[in-house]
């Protein structure tokens, strides 16, 4: 097994355990556990050591962290007793590129029966390039991978590293303990085999020798939040999407405008043709292209005087 040892792992584990202290690791507290883990991942002390540990891994895996990117926030895993975990898969199946490496860090109860399995010797036939892939393959792989030799049990101060084609998964927790762990990915930025949006990654910046969130094209701009009601257009979800998008990229929403939906898209039409409402804006952010699908598919409006961005697709529509 490819275990990676570093004194930083112990420090990372201590930070997370401090957050989880006094929380019972039981199923009806699963939201609290998850939210607490997210709080820990957002904390200054965690982020500092997370980024420096990632640099250490990238240096060993690629020779240097140059032109690599790091998952913005790790993915927490909570594996309760007598329950099923993540189905067997390789990260490549889910869009990660061939250059990606996954780092799995145990926090609590990563013991035999509660940990996960990895086909570290790559002996299972996994049909990665096959167009005949079916869920029967999943069943076969799940059965083949479940053997003692494939259990991931990192020694003290160690993490488990695996590439994106390695099959892995948590089949069933047969112990009475809840396992807590987290994982994250590092990848090359110019990986053509990846389908991931690089805007969701921290990029290694050689000038400051650290992973850093690159500034968004809308950073520092005056932004108008645009909401549109109507059938099958949930305004609550639109608000959440735009707010989270703005928070992630540190964007400033100056004002908010709602569409006069009874008359089509007069607000969007006016703004895109240069009509001024309350203030001057540099961009409009909309939840998704779908929200004003009829407007965007109308050839009359193929240009806009002010850029219109979609939060969901993270792209400029017009
Ligand atoms: Fe995975």
Q: Can you give a write-up of this model?
A:
The chain has 7 helices and 15 strands. It is α+β, with helices and mostly antiparallel strands and 318 residues long. Helix 1 crosses helix 2. The longest helix is centred in the N-terminal third of the chain and has 19 residues. It is elongated and about 65 Å long. The termini are far apart. The model has no long low-confidence stretch (mean pLDDT 92). It binds fe (ii) ion. The site of fe (ii) ion has 3 residues, from loops.
- CATH domain class name of the largest domain: Mainly Beta
Overall structural class, as computed from helix and strand content, comes to alpha+beta
Order of helices and strands: EHHHEEEEHEEEEEEHEHEHEE
Query: How many individual domains?
Result: 2
How many angstroms separate the termini? 49 Å
CATH topology of the largest domain: Jelly Rolls
Task: Report the biggest beta sheet as strand number plus sense, adding barrel if it closes.
Answer: 8 strands, antiparallel
Described by the principal axes of the CA atoms, the overall outline is elongated
User: What do the pLDDT scores average to?
Assistant: 92
Q: How many strand elements?
A: 15
């Amino acid at each position: 097994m490819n275990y990676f040892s570093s004194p930083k792992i112990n420090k990372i584990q201590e930070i997370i355990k401090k957050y989880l202290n006094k929380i019972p690791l039981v199923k009806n507290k699963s939201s609290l556990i998850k939210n607490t883990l997210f709080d820990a991942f957002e904390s200054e002390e965690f982020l500092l050591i997370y980024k420096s540990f990632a640099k250490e891994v990238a240096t060993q895996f690629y020779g240097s962290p140059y032109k690599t990117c790091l998952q913005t926030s790790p993915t927490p895993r909570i594996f309760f007793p007598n329950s099923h975990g993540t189905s067997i898969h390789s990260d490549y199946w889910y869009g990660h590129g061939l250059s990606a490496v996954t780092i799995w860090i145990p926090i609590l109860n990563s013991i035999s029966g509660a940990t996960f399995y990895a086909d570290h010797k790559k002996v299972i036939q996994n049909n990665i390039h096959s167009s005949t892939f079916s869920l029967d393959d999943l069943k076969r792989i799940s059965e083949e991978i479940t053997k003692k030799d494939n259990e991931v049990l990192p020694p003290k101060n160690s993490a488990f590293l695996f590439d994106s084609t390695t099959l892995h998964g948590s089949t069933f927790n047969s112990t009475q303990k809840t396992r807590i762990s987290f994982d994250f990915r590092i990848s090359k930025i110019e990986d053509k085999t990846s389908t991931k949006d690089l805007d969701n990654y921290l990029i290694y910046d050689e000038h400051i020798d650290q992973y850093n969130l690159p500034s968004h094209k809308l950073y520092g701009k005056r932004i108008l939040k645009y909401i549109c009601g109507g059938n099958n257009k949930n305004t609550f979800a639109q608000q959440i999407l735009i707010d989270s998008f703005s928070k992630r990229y540190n964007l400033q929403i100056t004002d908010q405008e709602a569409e006069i939906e009874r008359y089509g898209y007069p607000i969007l039409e006016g703004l895109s043709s240069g009509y001024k409402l309350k203030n001057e804006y540099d961009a409009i952010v909309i939840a998704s292209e779908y929200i004003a699908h009829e407007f965007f598919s109308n050839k009359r409006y193929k240009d806009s005087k002010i850029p219109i961005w979609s939060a969901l697709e993270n792209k400029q529509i017009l």
